Amino acid sequence: MTFFETIGKIIERYSSFFAQGVVNTLIIAAFSVLLGTILGTLMATMRMGKILPLKWLAVAYIEFIRGTPLMVQLMFIFYGLPMIGVKIPDISWIPNFSRFAAGIVAMSMNSCAYVAEVIRSGIQAVDYGQTEAARSVGFSSGEAMRLVVLPQAIRNILPALGNEFVTVIKESSIVSVIGIADLMFRTNDVIALSYKSLECLAVAALIYFVLTFISSRIVSLAERKLSHGK
Amino acid sequence: MENKQTMIEVQDLCKSFHKLEVLKHISTNFYKNEVVSIIGPSGGGKSTFLRCLNLLEKPTSGKIIFDGTDICDKRQNKNIDLHRQKMGMVFQQFNLFNNMDVMRNLTVAPMRIKKMPKDEAESKAIELLKKVGLADRVSAYPSQLSGGQKQRIAIVRSLMMDPEVMLFDEPTSALDPEMIGEVLDVMKALAADGMTMIVVTHEMRFAREVAARTIFLADGKIEEDKPSHELFDNPESPRLVSFLQKVL
């Protein structure tokens, strides 16, 4: 059997494995992106704000998260914290809730640090003259931010944020180490059943690529919608 | 020269950035309907002085009394934004809002801040745009305009708020030479209409012909402050003499 025939067979026989993996990967990624963006916006606000203790906290958090591996953060939350009694409870009607919650918490805490930096640099890239002009006609700093700076910052932020989303989808493969049945985890299952590691990994890579490709297309579409008036 | 109504009174104004003293005990008055130009070498504190007047820079010490209130005193001047609405500012780099077309650049402040109805704001904008010869560009975005056009629109944006005084921070310094004239013409027309103007400029001809008074600012101090023709024809301080030799 040729390589491609084997791939065809594997997809045919184990499609339900891959499908379930994709669903779980998407669940983890979607929640992480959503929470990461919300928390990241908050973190960027703290970091650029005038309240010094909050600013220091945000800087320390962002530096620390970006300077340590996601794998360590994930295992710290799932294996480490329960040792001191911090444990995510199981919810009976959601299977594997504690694993999923730990995965999502770790991924979004990680992503939030990167999102915060993306937002901060996007805002700071807008010429300060824009703010000054808005203040000079009598707008408050909040209005200047909302009416003039943010609409321009979005154009800087969106492409980088899109990259971050794509990264989250790919990085989410790491949650397989705490036993979440995501695409990577299911791929390993299929390898164990079929002994065809090369072909199975090729299938997994292809699926990941389709997922990231679609999301990056969606982001660039949104970019184009926002780009007129530039 | 009697009957001059004081608009801005500057008393003993100092400004330092960390250890660097940029303005050293500046005192002068600006009167209603007066056009004053401020000249001097780069780094002498001209722009900083102008920016202090509407508090884009916070003075380190001293008083700026505008409409009877000391705007540097937080107890007297509770709302800086309110005070800025009465002072138009034109920047060297134009600083039109890049995310808005010309019409919105002009109407956003009066509509949001003064609650002016949209149609009133728009007809006012058109009327002013006609005066500067740009009525056909209402729907253009800043990136589609030349420097001279941007600056004329920036002037109109300030005028939309009916300011009591207009501050110009080197309005022609970032322009190509052939566009300087169109901006100066708008400024001359404003001066002829009786607008109170304070203009930081390198255009010595404008200072001499349009401004009634010229202030020479060097090393953070006012070296000379007198009617323009006197200042240009009979410069007294050696600093001014050598400055004029270089620029004229």
Describe the structure concisely for a colleague.
The complex is a heterodimer of chains A (230) and B (248). Chain A is an all-alpha fold and 230 residues long.
Explain the overall architecture.
- The complex is a heterodimer of chains A (230) and B (248).
- Chain A contains 8 helices and no strands.
- With 230 residues, chain A is mainly alpha-helical.
- Chain A has a single domain, classed as MetI-like fold.
- In chain A, α1 packs antiparallel against α2 (52-66).
- The mean pLDDT of chain A is 90.
- With 248 residues, chain B is an alpha/beta fold.
- Helix content of chain B is 37%, strand content 26%.
- Chain B contains 9 helices and 10 strands.
- Chain B has helices at residues 46-53, 80-85, 102-113, 118-131, 147-159, 177-192, 204-209, 228-233, 238-247; strands spanning 6-17, 20-31, 35-39, 61-66, 69-70, 87-90, 165-169, 196-200, 213-218, 221-227.
- The chains are: A mainly alpha (230), B alpha/beta (248).
- The A-B interface holds A 127, 129-130, 132-140, 143, 147-148, 151-152, 229-230 and B 54, 56, 81-82, 84-85, 87-89, 91, 93, 95-101, 108-109, 112-113, 141, 143, 154, 157-158, 161.
How do the strands and helices of this protein lay out in sequence?
The complex is a heterodimer of chains A (230) and B (248).
Chain A: H1 3-48, H2 52-66, H3 70-80, H4 97-124, H5 128-136, H6 141-171, H7 183-194, H8 197-226
Chain B: E1 6-17, E2 20-31, E3 35-39, H1 46-53, E4 61-66, E5 69-70, H2 80-85, E6 87-90, H3 102-113, H4 118-131, H5 147-159, E7 165-169, H6 177-192, E8 196-200, H7 204-209, E9 213-218, E10 221-227, H8 228-233, H9 238-247
Parallel strand pairs in B: 3-8, 3-9, 6-7, 7-8
Antiparallel strand pairs in B: 1-2, 1-4, 4-5, 9-10
Helix pairs in contact in B: 3-4, 3-5, 5-6
